Amino acid sequence: MSKALGTFRAVYLVALCCVGSFLFAYDTGIVGGILTFSSFQVDFRYGAGEKATVGSNSTSLLQAGAFFSCFFIWPFTARFGRRLSLVLASTIFCIGAIVQTINTHSLGAFYAARVVSGIGVGMATVVIPMYSAEMAPKNIRGMLGSMFQFFFTLGVMTSYWIDYAVSEHMQPSTAQWQIPVGLQLAPGAILGLGMLLTKESPRWLAKKGRREDAIKSLAWIRGGESPEVDAEFAEILASIEEEERITNGVTWKELILPVNRMRVFLIIALQIGVQLTGNTSLAYYAPQVFAAVGAGQDNLLITGFFGVVKVISCLFFLLFLVERIGRRGSLLGGAFLMGTYMLIIAVLTATHPPSASKGLTSTGIASLTMIYLEAMSYNISWGPVPWVYMSEIFPSRIREAGVAIGTSTQWLFNFVFSQVTPHAIQNLGWKAFLMFCIFNYSLVVFVWFFIKETKGKSLEEMEAVFGAAATAIDVEAIHDKAKRGEVTQVETAYDNKREGQ
Questions:
Q1: I need a surface site. Which of 207, 238, 452, 469 has the fewest CB within 10 A?
Q2: How many helices (DSSP H) and strands (DSSP E) are in the chain?
Q3: How far apart are CA 166 and CA 270, in angstroms?
Q4: What's the pLDDT score for residue 326?
Q5: Is the dihedral of CA 429, 430, 435, 437 positive or negative?
Q6: What stretches in the chain show pLDDT beneath 50?
Q7: What is residue 491's predicted lDDT score, i.e. its pLDDT?
Q8: pLDDT on residue 433
Q9: In what helix (H) or strand (E) does residue 207 lie, and over which residues does it extend?
Q10: Stated pTM of the model
């Protein structure tokens, strides 16, 4: 019963904090639709010729706010914890959303509100993966970590359909664009208020020396006290004490140690790889991409179903695949499949160029099918896995810094590709899909040689996985000590090796 209760609590808590991922996706997706509304153009007093500039600025300013917030939230969450960080992120986001919803007739005010909302969602995207990993049991950490991407796809899908609904069923008016923008206040409030009623990360509490609070939090999230909870708590203490002993008070400088440099390289490369797959670009500019392969006037409706496909595939992955095929296998398979689909799209659009007068042809349908399959492959691989991997591979002392670096990389290259993609599609045509094909096949090579499997490992076992012998703890020895109630005595693999020499 306690294990089932613990699983329920872990799923509930991670789902609650992943509302922040929903916000990130919804806020990004909704703006593309409202900027096409004539009512928005009238209220904010700009012409059709400025539409592209306004759209680019609205997207870029959100990303800029998110990028810079990654470096602010790192020291804040290290000092004040995960819960208060998410409460602050929610508050800042809601302030920005309120100003966006008000008809100020000023693009400057709207832009400023986009920056403020970007700061909120950027802070949330740093804390959520970290908090999820620290609270999740190791046997379902991959599944719970993948909920970040699941809620992202849910936010994208919701934004697509709300844009479609108000464009089809409402007359041009101020309310037509205010409803989609204002709706984001509901999940924003749920995130902030919900975090006030949850438990703090036991690993953060233990790192701060609050061991009694830490064991209470761990027991709550695992469904009650048990020998397994004692053993896990012993691992946490052993890992923290060993890191303290070896690093002797060093904090951010640990990032440049050889074993940690490699981990920083991996998470930066993974987050760049997410953009190189081409899927984020397809998500931002789905209507234009669908028009490019011949969807014509049906592109908005097809975009809506595009969002549904993403949600279903990501849900299937987190329920049935992530803890079976592992992190490495899903990254390898996903990159190979996406590269193949992009190659097929390039060949089809090169040999049978789409024409607006012909409508949706058989080759256009084939290209659309490949795009849908590409989206499904992304959401069972490069969509969820980098967020899981980034949050689990760093030791507790530098986890905040590591995740902040990875998330800021994501936002930076998100910005770069959002600027490049529309020009690539316009100027390169089918060659843009060939470019993404080459990128994906290159990612297969990268994963094969550099990515280590972390499935089924506790956060405290990552030191051994990445070859950090000096701080790797002997997990079996710690478990034995926990059974005897000796949780404060630690023994490391490094010490065992040294004694055997």
A1: 469
A2: 24, 0
A3: 37
A4: 86
A5: positive
A6: 1, 488-501
A7: 41
A8: 84
A9: helix 202-207
A10: 0.82
